[in-house]
Amino acid sequence: MKLESAIKMKNVSKIYEINSEKRSLKQLFIDTVKAKEKIKPTQIQIFKDISFEITKGEVFGLIGENGAGKSTALKIMAGIISPDAGAVHVNGSVAALLEIGLGFHPDLTGTENARLYGSILGIDRKSMKDLMPQIFKFAELEGYENVPIKRYSSGMQVRLAFSVATNIDPDILLLDEVFSVGDKRFQTKSFEKIKSFLDQKKTILLVTHDLKIAEELCTRIMFIRKRGAIEIGPPGEMIEKYHESLKEGSIRV
């Protein structure tokens, strides 16, 4: 029996353009007046024509060197950025925790930001109101509901973001280095929350440099090499290939 697809990426390519020379506003004006030839940006190929499928209920890990494209892959799947070519199909509601305070407005309170985050993820106002007590309890931020986010520490912000993302009951959860933030106790608490998602057969995509966690949680792992080349296989096999690359000195962690 064919398993139902949660996410499918088909022939996806992504290129970033980086300006090789920084110029001040004054210099830009002078160059424009002098009709100086425009400096062409440097193009970096992140992915080229990659295809893979993630099934429902799978814990899918992404490992590889910094800058290889792990976070870019998550952002494409979350719909935050678009591929330059190819198609992405997502089957189910998605919650993404990709960076500290993603989408948070510094002048809004914790409650207002949580409500805004929930609305972006498609949760109606009444449902978010009902969820607020458990969101702030899990985040250990009771008493801070009406405090502006700019008064929160980075740890408080990520606890709130993680709590919102995991308490709205998404079908698919995208996590980028979530176990590297917060204190040890909250990391353990977050880990237990993720394991409860596994019991509910939720789909989880996890970017992490903690290979022990990756091997323990993931059903499959995608190892992203330089220039976006990918290999997908069992956790032990992909982690071994990662270690081999480390020995060869080709990976920067």
From TrEMBL:
Gene3D superfamilies: P-loop containing nucleotide triphosphate hydrolases. The keyword ATP-binding applies. The keyword Translocase applies. Pfam families: ABC_tran. One of its GO terms (molecular function) is ATP binding. Residues 7-251 form the ABC transporter domain. One of its GO terms (cellular component) is membrane. Keywords: ATP-binding, Nucleotide-binding, Translocase, Transport. CDD domains: ABC_KpsT_Wzt (cd03220). InterPro entries: AAA+_ATPase, ABC_transporter-like_ATP-bd, ABC_transporter-like_CS, ABC_transpr_TagH-like, Bact_Polysacc_Export_ATP-bd, P-loop_NTPase. Belongs to the ABC transporter superfamily. This is ABC transporter domain-containing protein. It comes from Paenibacillus ferrarius.
